[in-house]
Amino acid sequence: MKMEFTVGMGRDESALDIAELSRTAEDAGFTNLTFVDQPNMSRDVFVCMTIAALNTRRIRIGQGVTDPYTYHPSVTANATATVAELSGGRAFVGLGAGGPWGKAMKARSLQEVRECIEFIKAYTSGKDAQFRGATMHSEWVGKPLKVYLGGYGPKLCQLAGELADGMMLASNADPVHIKWQMEQIEKGALKVGRDPSEIDIWARGMIYVAESKEQAKREVSGYAVNSSSALYRHTLRQSPEIIDLTERINKAHPGLLEECKKVHDAWTPDQHERRGTPASEAVTDRIIDLQHLMGTPEDIAEKLETIGGLGIKTFATVTYTVIDKKGMVKEIGDKVLPFFRN
Amino acid sequence: MRFAVGMGRNLRIDEVAEHSRLAEKTGFDYLTFVDIPLLNRDVYVMMGIAALNTKHILIGHGVTDPYTWHPSVIANATATINEMSGGRTFVGIGVGGLWGKVMNPQPLNDFRQVVNFIREYSSGNPAEWKGATMHSEWIKNQMKIYMACGGPKSLQLGGEIADGVILTSNADPVTMKWRIEQIEKGAEKAGRDPNDIDVWARGMIYVTDQGDYQQARRQVSGYAVNGAIEVIRLLNRKSPEVEELRRRMEKAEPGLIDQCQKVYNAFDPKWLEHVDAPAANLITDDILAAQQFLGKPDVICEHIDKLKQIGIKTIGTVTYTIADKKGMMEEISKKIMPYFRN
User: What 3-state class would DSSP assign to A118?
Assistant: First the structure.
């Protein structure tokens, strides 16, 4: 089976560490590289993207993900276009609605995200572009950028199906969850008469190659807090799509949502993506097994085969809570990627 | 006297490395990059490239604003460059304005809060912004903050709280003296020694002892529109301080205000900093002589000397509308800087 791979980085590296780590990702065979955009926690996303562009030759580079609140859309478009110029066209926009992850903000409305995508597409095509009543036109940008949406909810997935070039699914590699999100994207695509297969959908979860699960679990748990607490929060909403998701999860994995609730209840924002926190200690083996890919290369490849069977063509891992980030990127390149070359 | 050079108005991103190296080699002390997303490449990508390509020059914005960028982004991105460059970064910030950005200037009180926020946040302390408390996980080194100011109230604020003040694009000694008085007023109010504040006069230096004077005049006029219209905007405000400035200008520079008014009337933001713009064609020799540095080395040095006596510590030139930007940096280095080295 053929599959492409993405790696997300920049959670706590210094900008200069990015040079070596981005080269390692390219040499290891990853197709895409994304950078965290959380100003309170990580180095600036555009500086990291710049350093990656200067140190690589073919890997694609984007945000993982930015939002329309922290950055004005004209800034997102202009800065990403600058990285595209620097890299010979290898930059893309990774955009979400924003959220509580360490930013002093609320998620933006779906309408705002829609306007932001439309703005970025028009603006980077060199056209007059409208945002909140103001018309803007760049003096120099002329090549349209691809826009990937990142997020969880059914409406956001439908929006991606309508007008995004790609979608980064929630960080949760459980095939039940992936399938449900893919159906929402398809719904959006069909609504506007688009072929859903045109949309580049990435499934996400942390890949951690390990013979022994003890140390691995500590590192993966720090990140698995995101997937488990987000899933629980998500199921609190009462829409037909969410009720359907909740039913599917309860049927496939009875009791899982209670495990996720415990993580959610133990979480506070200062624990975000850290090892050894109360929330990460509440992460169970089952949560890790379902939502992330930890184990021997063969175990991981088997899970990826299942995910690929759903129609996923790209899988995205992250280095955030991994201690030896460079070692893990190489390890994945050496031991997992070869299963998916053709 | 120290020298700063502003660049990035219309450089392609692959030109930034060479121009920054040359600015350092030719002896400039500071390097600033334009931040107008509709007009130029992203400011942080440019600052990042400059940091990677230089060793001792100080790097900042010329200037950013708290509308286009969230203050936590300004602090975080500048701190990222600061980390990469070994502490060579400063924040150059103004209230924002009409320069091609779709925005209104920010109220002065907001601006005071922005400066306080950036200072606290980049010191590694919890910092408040509009009711939200933010705390960086990684930033610990306070950065210097330079405020771009033109009007009496902002100049006084600069005198109260800024490490440096960048006086907006106009090197007229009459206006500069008045501006320095406003800064001193603010400094005294806060019990500061005004001498501690690094005050920059900005104007384009264009040495014309060889080459075509008419060509030089054309290029400088494209930029001189900024200074001319900014005088009118300032004089349109009603305050005793502004009336005092008008009185001084009418006495020392008869007719100059009328000439600036004609430029102001012809200004169209679409032509911002363009050679041969309709407003640029109305720039007079009087405007150029008062507000910019165009001419033979002795004329330029005499003008700078006057500013030095008033209390200006740094001359900030820009390359924006100059055709041979690198050649002009070399010229300034050879023919102007040596005169002020002791």
Answer: helix
